[in-house]
Write a sequence for this structure.
């Protein structure tokens, strides 16, 4: 794991530095110079690598002192410093999601990065507090003012945290509720304070038993962690969450309530489901290739026998029927070849391609779908399109996904029109159908993972989401125009390869 993390940091060091630096510069608006921000970010990443290598957070001590001096000289408060570290967390996410190594577990790496930031900022907070106390010992008035400010900073951090933070008294009523809780569950502080803690429980005896367990364990042991459970939002949605519950003691140590920190685990579950789905699709691809191979061998033998019979037969009727058989055998052979090509594991190597060939292959695959008997395909493909730098297998997947959605939209009877052209250093591919169309609300959600308008069991909701991700990785765009009852047009826009623009 150590080597995997260090390799990841080395591979994306410059990219993460650029991303994090841009976020901090935008956040601080001139309170630090660009060079100061870049130096801090690079120092942070090197420190994280040293922590990973030595498995010891004390490696961060000198770095934290330098950071404290920098932030103090720039009059940054604790809330702003917290936001700097938070922006660092977010700067890792695009590169974690883009890593496709077989040994790379995005959930595990993301969790480890979160822990790095949390532990490092916690140590910074201790250093900050100690330094503040040393300063404040010399002046009682300044001590009171600083303590008040620090309390406000802490209150602001807790209030603005992305995690839901709440306090429940011994009467099982909410007595504190932060903005993170409002964001996750939809309730405002005014709507929740004084309400029973069961407000967030989904229906069912399971969750009532869980609540009783939390009460008993926290009262006895002082804390409990529940790594995965469910809670209900204001709008009735059931979301997956993580719970961290600690005892709220009185002066004599008796139980008077509990602090609850809740993290929304829904997106992690979706990512895990996507990984599982990808593994299933890989298995299906291997199976398809095997089936195609088993069909291809006997098909070649049949084709040879038909050709022998054609040469020997002098009967006109038999010759016509043999020609018909040969034509259908050739058609099956073509389907098998394209099935093998499509089921082959996708390559992630980017090469220079003319999109016309990829579009024609996609049309060839889709035309063999059982739903196309009453579908009319038309195309207007520009000759000699400028070449684009793309992973061909992945782009083929994009076009097939969009074409299959078009088939669903016209319900097996209608027209599909494919057009390609180049303009303003980009290649445009338009896929238009005259099907049912979509309203604005659906268009806004169609690229969300697992969103589908199809019946249960007939769609995973991953096709367009995966397609969107593929196009974004090559700096392209997918645009959609649609109206209910008037069909839809998907436009894929891909930049022309740089060296061809010069």
């Amino acid at each position: 794991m150590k080597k995997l993390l260090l390799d990841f940091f080395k591979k994306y060091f410059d990219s993460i530095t650029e991303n994090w630096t841009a976020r901090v510069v935008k956040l601080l608006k001139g309170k630090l110079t660009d060079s100061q921000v870049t130096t801090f970010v690079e120092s942070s990443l090197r420190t994280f690598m040293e922590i990973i290598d030595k498995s010891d957070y004390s490696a961060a001590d000198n770095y934290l002192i330098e950071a404290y001096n920098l932030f103090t000289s720039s009059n940054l408060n604790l809330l702003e410093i917290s936001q700097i570290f938070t922006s660092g967390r977010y700067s890792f996410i695009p590169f974690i999601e883009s890593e496709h190594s077989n040994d790379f577990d995005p959930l595990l790496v993301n969790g480890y990065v979160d822990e790095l930031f949390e532990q490092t900022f916690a140590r910074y907070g201790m250093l900050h507090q100690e330094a503040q106390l040393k300063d404040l010992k010399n002046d009682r008035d300044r001590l009171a003012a600083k303590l008040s400010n620090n309390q406000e900073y802490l209150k602001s951090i807790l209030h603005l945290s992305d995690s839901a933070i709440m306090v429940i008294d011994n009467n099982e009523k909410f007595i504190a509720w932060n903005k993170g809780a409002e964001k996750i569950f939809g309730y405002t502080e005014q709507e929740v304070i004084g309400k029973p803690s069961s407000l967030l429980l989904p229906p069912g005896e399971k969750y009532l038993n869980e609540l009783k367990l939390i009460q008993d364990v926290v009262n006895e042991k002082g804390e409990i962690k529940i790594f995965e459970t469910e809670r209900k939002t204001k709008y009735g949605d059931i979301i997956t969450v993580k719970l961290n519950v600690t005892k709220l003691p009185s002066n004599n140590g008796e139980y008077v309530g509990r602090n609850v920190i809740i993290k929304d685990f829904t997106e992690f579950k979706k990512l895990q489901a996507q990984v599982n789905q990808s593994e299933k699709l890989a298995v299906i691809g291997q199976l398809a290739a095997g089936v195609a191979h088993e069909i291809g061998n006997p098909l070649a033998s049949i084709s040879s026998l038909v050709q022998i019979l054609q040469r020997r037969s002098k009967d006109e009727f038999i010759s016509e029927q043999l020609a018909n058989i040969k034509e259908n055998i050739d058609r099956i052979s073509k389907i098998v070849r394209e099935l093998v090509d499509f089921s082959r594991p996708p390559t992630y190597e980017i090469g220079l391609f003319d999109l016309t060939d990829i579009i024609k292959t996609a049309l060839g695959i889709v035309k063999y779908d059982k739903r196309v008997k009453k579908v009319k395909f038309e195309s207007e493909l520009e000759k000699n399109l400028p070449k684009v730098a793309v992973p061909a297998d992945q782009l083929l997947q994009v076009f097939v996904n969009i074409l299959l959605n078009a088939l669903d939209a016209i319900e097996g009877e209608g027209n599909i029109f494919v057009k390609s052209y180049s303009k303003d250093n980009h290649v445009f591919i338009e896929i238009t159908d005259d099907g049912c169309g979509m309203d604005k609300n659906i268009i806004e959600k169609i690229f969300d993972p697992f969103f589908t308008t199809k019946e249960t069991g007939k769609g995973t909701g991953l096709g367009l989401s995966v397609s969107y991700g593929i196009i974004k990785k090559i700096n392209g765009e997918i645009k959609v125009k649609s109206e209910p009852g008037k069909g839809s047009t998907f436009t894929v826009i891909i930049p022309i390869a740089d060296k061809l623009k010069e």
Remarks:
- The radius of gyration is 30 Å.
- The mean pLDDT is 80.
- Residues 266-312 form the longest helix (47 residues).
- DSSP finds 16 helices and twelve strands in the chain.
